[in-house]
Write a structure and sequence with these properties.
Distance between the termini of chain A: 34 Å
Radius of gyration of chain A: 13 Å
Helix content of chain A: under 10%
Oligomer: heterodimer
Helix content of chain B: under 10%
Structural class of chain B: mainly beta
Number of helices of chain B: 0
Shape of chain B: globular
Distance between the termini of chain B: 40 Å
Strand content of chain B: over 45%
Radius of gyration of chain B: 13 Å
Shape of chain A: globular
Structural class of chain A: mainly beta
Largest sheet of chain B: 7 strands, mixed
Chain lengths: 107, 120
Amino acid sequence: EIVLTQSPGTLSLSPGERATLSCRASQSVTSTYLAWYQQKPGQALRLLIYDISTRATGIPDRFSGSGSGTDFTLTISRLEPEDFAVYYCQQYGTSPLTFGGGTNVEI
Amino acid sequence: QVQLVESGGGVVQPGGSLRLSCAASGFTFSIPVMHWVRQAPGNGLEWVALISHDGDYKTYSDSVKGRFTVSRDNSKKTLYLQMNNLRTEDAAVYYCAKALNSGWGPFEYWGLGNLVTVSS
């Protein structure tokens, strides 16, 4: 099983600041099958980034993904008030599919 | 627009059974892989099971293998999760999710989830 470790667990920032979230895999992720999701209370989970760096439909360009192999990063260039949420990485190339433990981006 | 609506959750005793349903609309249900994912209270996300577009291929997490069965009825645009021999550690919000394109992932759309409580 590919274990995904996200850091930090909590990121305390202010609107307008840059957020850098890390996701490290215990072994190389198959192909480019790494995604990022946003979770807010009472809302459906939202796909942000897939295939490491492809923004999903409707996702603003302040969200970007990068990385390869075992190290991946989600960057939010300038935080908007609606970006404060929990973020999860996921690998979907190898069964069992796995998620990281999440990073809480808080004000 | 795409909608995924889970139902069938509730309170069950350890050892009991429940069947979750996920009603889909807004897309051609018979095309994508579909998934179940769960989230225990205060915890992160755990993938549970996937089923191929035609139901011929299924795979499960080790934690539910042999107890849970995923199925789909493409004519009814509905995904199911039959959960047997439930344990306290199965208590969670269960989400159904639609894969993007024809692969296993990523998970393009999610339902709002349905709560399963396992308690005596």
